[in-house]
């Protein structure tokens, strides 16, 4: 222990040993405890807190260095660079024109090692119209909230006249880690609902394209006008893909095919296949209408199966009250037959 700390504790121990104090009975033995022992017992949590803070301060340079390292290059981008192709840029990292400080902070985190997320997470975020930086900002807010929650509770208790002998440092760390992973759990739980919503948006897009083709518009014009009807995240991605293809002076079908694979929307890929043949001169308006009806029927069938599964899962909770009522009604006769008085 450092010398100033010894000089601080020794006078307390000497004064407490000189002044008589009432005996404090120990649960293990009847020997009285002095006030110096009580002071040392109260000083142990503070010493533990000091050790934890010192260890965190000693590891701070390593953590800062690890956090400032850029994220490793993805394997797909590296192979594309070696093959002479331009790697695909991440639209989630690009900042909008009116981006604020939180958006810039999230974009900075997305380029670091801590911002590495899975492809499934990126897909769900794209279907929600969110960016990776938005998710990282949310995770940071939840982590800081969980880390500061025990301290806020302790300060509130002190203002109310209550004191805690120990600062819940470990509880704050546990809540901070839990808060960091909480947005991931929420995103995973909403994945199925987001996928269904995106499938419905694709079906609506197919219907709009079919109506435009029935109005004798070209395939590219029909796709462009259908994407401008709504501001759904899927429609926005389709609109951005069409605009990029227009600026590159290329046909939009290959870009839309890549978008369907990226967002895992097979309905969009089927529409692109039909429109590609239609653009080449074949009149496939009737085929497009039939394919749209098939996609709509398949989606309706999947929705019915999901609703049937939910109904089957509720059967267990419907049987439990019946079992409880039957047990209540059958218990007195069974006790009478067995000779036990109720």
Description:
- Helix 1 (3-18) runs antiparallel to helix 2, helix 6 (132-159) packs antiparallel against helix 7 and helix 8 (191-214) runs antiparallel to helix 13.
- Helices cover 74% and strands 0% of the residues.
- It has 342 residues and is mostly helical.
- Among the domains are: 101-189, no CATH class; 193-304.
- 15% of the residues are buried.
- The termini are far apart.
- The protein is flat, with a radius of gyration of 33 Å.
Question: Which descriptors apply to this entry?
Answer:
flat; 342 residues; disordered N terminus; mainly alpha; single chain
SSE topology sketch:
Layout: H1 3-18, H2 35-68, H3 75-82, H4 101-110, H5 119-128, H6 132-159, H7 169-189, H8 191-214, H9 219-227, H10 233-247, H11 252-263, H12 266-279, H13 285-313, H14 315-337
Helix pairs in contact: 1-2, 4-6, 6-7, 8-9, 8-13, 10-11, 11-12, 12-13
Summarize the structure.
With 342 residues, this protein is an all-alpha fold. The chain has helices spanning 3-18, 35-68, 75-82, 101-110, 119-128, 132-159, 169-189, 191-214, 219-227, 233-247, 252-263, 266-279, 285-313, 315-337.
